[in-house]
Amino acid sequence: MIGFIKKDLAMIKSNFKLMGILFVVYAIMGFMGDMDISFILPFISVMIMISTFSYDNYNKWDAYAISLPDGRKNSVRAKYVATILMMIIVSIVTFILSCAISYYKTQTIDLVQMLSTMLGSVFGTLLVLVFMYPIIYKFGLEKARIGIFVIVFGIVIIGGLLIQYVDLSYISKYLFCIEDYLIPILIAVMIIMVYVSYIISLRIFNKKEF
Amino acid sequence: MENILEVKDLCKKYENFELKNVSFKLPKGMIMGFIGENGAGKTTTIKAILDIIKTYSGEIKIFGMDNRKDESKIKEDIGVVLDDMFFPEIITPNDINNAMAGIFKNWDSKMYFDYLKEFSLLPNEQVKTFSKGMRKKLEIATALSHHPKLLIMDEPTSGLDPVARAEVIEIFQGFIEDEECSILLSSHNTTDLEHVADYITFIKDGEIALSKTADELLNKYGIVKCSEKEFKAIDDKDFIKYRKTKYEYEILVEDKKAFKSKYKNAVIDKITLDDLMILMIKGEE
């Protein structure tokens, strides 16, 4: 699997410069003004990884990948691992920058607040990954792009309807009860989501012919 | 003789095409030329062997193991060049080395860079800057650099100039020298195959039309060129196929000597793989 990850990272190395520029922009905006774009950065890192599907498809890599040892399994697994790895690295750099910005402005660092923001951003980005990857494996990147709009639109509509017509106060009460365990629960939910998404993607890819 | 690859009763159905009971055996230490016109089923057969297509019936054994059950073990020892270019254009040969070192247990970086040097490929240039021939060379270098026991090559010499082709053919001949390794070589370049192949398997409309040793095929088979009058005097059972050209009849015979002994005045030429393919495809029975 390591080889497949290296190949995916090699494909996006030209984007590392772009990520670097985004970090600089984020830092400047943070130090100079009030605009916070930290939540976007992990999302952009996932979008960059998603572009590797396009290169694979254009260059007919998948057929060759299957001819390699454990090609189907390693190919899918490497996409997930490389994406999550990218996301974690970008989130950690963003977190460190956010701490520095906070300290520069207020001479304090609210670690809990910072961690919550980072986890929220990671969770949202993972949602894109867990829905998008199986769709990409099933229908290809072009159709998946339409799919993601449908998913995001659907989540917004359903969320809006729930807030408007359903009494959610008991959920917030329940969340208050488990407040101390919220972060571990959130991490567990993320792991389960990614695992289920990976299994679905693998099943789809295992059936694919090229 | 031990077989490195055995394909038995391979069937695969598409809407407009079908592989029908494809069977052949590739012994150790041999090169098999896999020939046939475009769309005859060569690439589909190779894809089934590599499990790139899945919904087929039949049995495929590589190194005596089932190609699906023992996939991981088998693929460590197979080097592959596919019909289509497959390396992402934005990576470099150096990136490929790093990736393959993490994929193959036996990856040999030194061997890989030696091949790159031999083929005059720059390690830090992106694949997109390479010509079609250079990309093929890169794929061949990659296929050879993990000490595989079986090479499966779909049109590996397409796009190569004659010098590079000769170079690659020489590498293939060296590859089977220790008699432990074999090559399944699909190619339209039949002249190369005549020089290098020990076996020839010919696929036509999804069926194996013949699978024989190259010696038997090229020395025993013959092509008779004759007039219409002479053709009419030949018994139907004494030839496989015939074809009427503008000036003469061309007849494919299975046993040159036997034919000559029966038809003393017949002029029988040595057959080439091109002649064989044309007569097998265009000829009538």
Quick overview:
With 210 residues, chain A is mostly helical. Helices cover 86% and strands 0% of the residues of chain A.
Kindly describe this structure.
The complex is a heterodimer of chains A (210) and B (285). Chain A has 210 residues and is mainly alpha-helical. Chain A has one domain. Chain A has helices at 2-11, 13-32, 40-58, 61-66, 71-106, 111-139, 141-165, 169-177, 182-207. In chain A, helix 2 (13-32) runs antiparallel to helix 3 and helix 3 runs parallel beside helix 6. Chain B is built from eleven helices and 14 strands. The two termini of chain B are 34 Å apart. Chain B has helices spanning 42-49, 71-75, 93-101, 109-118, 132-144, 162-175, 190-196, 214-220, 228-232, 256-262, 273-282, and strands at residues 3-13, 18-27, 31-35, 57-62, 65-66, 78-81, 150-154, 182-186, 199-204, 207-213, 222-226, 241-244, 249-253, 268-270. In chain B, a hairpin with a 4-residue loop joins strand 12 and strand 13. Chain B is α/β, with parallel strands linked by helices and 285 residues long. Chain B is elongated. In chain B, helix 4 (109-118) runs antiparallel to helix 5. Chain B folds into two domains: 3-214, P-loop containing nucleotide triphosphate hydrolases (Rossmann fold, 3-Layer(aba) Sandwich), CATH 3.40.50; 221-282, no CATH class. In chain B, the strands form three sheets. A six-stranded mixed β-sheet of chain B has the order 6-7-8-3-9-10, with helices on both faces. In chain B, strands 2-1-4-5 form a four-stranded antiparallel β-sheet, covered by helices on one side. In chain B, strands 12-13-11-14 form a four-stranded antiparallel β-sheet, with helices on both faces. The model of chain B has no long low-confidence stretch (mean pLDDT 92). The interface between A and B is medium-sized, with 29 and 33 residues.
